[in-house]
Amino acid sequence: MTPTPLLFLLLLGFTGAQVTMDLRMAAAMAAGLCKTRPTDLVFIVDSSRSVRPSEFEQVKVFLAKVIEGLDVGPNATRVGVVNYASRVKNEVSLKTYRTKAALVKAVTKIEPLSTGTMTGLAIQFSLNVAFSEAEGARVKSPDISKVAIIVTDGRPQDSVKDVAQRARDAGIEIFAIGVGRVDMTTLKQMASDPLDDHVDYVESYSVIEKLTKKFQEAFCACSNSATDVVFLIDGSKSVRPENFELVKKWINQIIDKLDVSDTKAHVGLVQYSSAVKQEFPLGRFNSKKELKEAVKKMDYMERGTMTGQALRYLTEKSFAPGLGARPGVTKVGIVFTDGRSQDYIGDAAKKAKENGFKMYAVGVGNAVEDELKEIASEPTAEHYFYTADFKAMTQIAKKLQINICQEEDPCECDSLVKFQKKVEEALQALTKKLESMSKRIAMLENKIV
C-alpha cells in the first residue's frame, strides 16, 4: 500500500495544522499593518425625503468602506452613527460595537427617516449626546481625536453656523460632504479649517465611494512619523505685503496637515531676502496653535532675493543637531520663492539633497522653473510646484503631501518592513520544513519500493 501524503505528514510529525498556523501568523501580521490614530468618530447622515432609498444604500456602503480602513477597538477608533431628517436618531453609539464586523452589520440595518432636513439639530444632538462620555466618548485629550463626518444633499431647514462653531470649539473636527444640489455655503459654515481639506462635493450618491480613500488616509497614522520640517520663505520686495499674508496662510494650511507634537513633527521657519532671518527654530513650538500664531506674527522683510544664501543657511544651521534638529529624524525643507535668485543656488541645492534632506520647491509669479527643479528632490515632478497667482497657492498646499512614510501607502512605514521581514522568515522556515519533509518522503518511498 502506498502511503497517502497526509500519512507521510503524520509520520513526520508535521501536520497540516502547523502549515495553517504559519500562514495564519502571516495573515495576522498583515491585518495589523495599518494603525489609525485613536479617534472618536461620529458619522452624521442625512436621510431626509430627498435621499432616495437606493441612494441611502450607497451612503451605507461608503460608511462601511471607511470603517473597514480603520483600526477599530476600545483603545483605538470608536465609531458612532447619527441618522437625521426632521428628527434625530442615534443609530450606533461610540460604546456599542468594538469590532469592524459588528459595526458594518449595524450600518447595513439603518433605515432612512424620510422627512425634513434639520442639520443644525443633528449637530447639536451629536455635541450633546453622541460625543458624550455616557455614549462612549473618551475624556478630552490631545492623544484622542474627535471627528464628525456630515453627509447631506440639501439645504437645512434650520441654522447650522452657530451650532457648528460650538462643536468645533469643543474640539470636534468636522468634515462636510455635500451631494448633488447641496447648499455649498452651508457646508462651509459647518466644516473645520482649512475648508479645502474639510469640504467635499460629489455630483451624486453613486460616486460617493470615491471619497473612501481620502478618509481612510485621513485617519491613518504611521509608526515613524517623527520629522523635522523647515520652511524657507522668500520675503523679497517683489512678493508685496498683501501676498505675504497669503503666504503665511499657506504655511499654516500645511501645518494643519502635520502631526505636530514633542515626539512627532517639529517645524522651523526661516525668512530670507537680501539677508536670512530665523523666525523660530525646530522644537521651539510643539503644538499647531503655537506654531500658527508664530507664523501670523512674522514681519515682511522686503529687499532682495538671495535664495542660494538661504539654502546654505538651511543646510548649515536649520538642520544642525545643536540648533534644534533631531538626529536620525527625516528632514524636510520647503522652499518658497516668487522670483529669480540674485545669487547662485546650484551648490547649496546639491548639498541639501546630498545630506539626505527631502526638498520641496514652490514657485509663484516670476519664479524660475529651472531653479525650482534644481532645488527639488527626485522625482522632481513630485517635489516642485508652480502657479502664476498667489491666490492659487491653496491648491499647491493640497497637492504638497509631506509623506513621512517613504512607501506609496501612507500606512506602510516601518511596520511594513517588519511585516515583510517576518513573513519572509516564516516562509523560509516553512520552506526548510517542506524540503526536509520531501527528503524524508523520498527515503520512505525508497524503503517501501
Q: How does this structure look, described?
A:
This protein has helices at 5-12, 16-31, 53-68, 100-108, 119-130, 161-169, 184-190, 195-198, 212-218, 241-257, 288-296, 307-318, 346-354, 369-375, 380-383, 393-399, 414-448; strands at residues 35-36, 39-46, 77-84, 88-92, 145-152, 172-179, 199-202, 220-221, 227-234, 265-272, 276-280, 330-337, 358-364, 384-387. It is α/β, with parallel strands linked by helices and 449 residues long. It has a six-stranded mixed sheet, with helices on both faces. The protein has a six-stranded mixed sheet with strand order 11-10-9-12-13-14, sandwiched between helices. Strands 1-8 form a two-stranded antiparallel sheet. Helix 3 (53-68) packs parallel to helix 9, helix 5 runs parallel beside helix 6 (161-169) and helix 10 (241-257) packs parallel to helix 16 (393-399). The longest helix has 35 residues, at 414-448. The radius of gyration is 27 Å and the shape is globular.
Largest sheet: number of strands, sense, barrel closure = 6 strands, mixed
User: How helical, in percent, are the residues?
Assistant: 40-55%
Main sheet: strand order: 4-3-2-5-6-7
> With helices defined by DSSP (H or I, 4 residues minimum), what is the helix count?
17
User: From the alpha-carbon coordinates, what is the Rg to the nearest angstrom?
Assistant: 27 Å
Mean pLDDT: 82
The unreliable regions are 1-33, 403-417
Characterize the overall form: globular
Q: State which percent range the strand residues make up.
A: 15-25%
**What class do helices, strands and sheet pairing give?**
alpha/beta
Cα distance, first to last residue?
Answer: 10 Å
Number of strands: 14
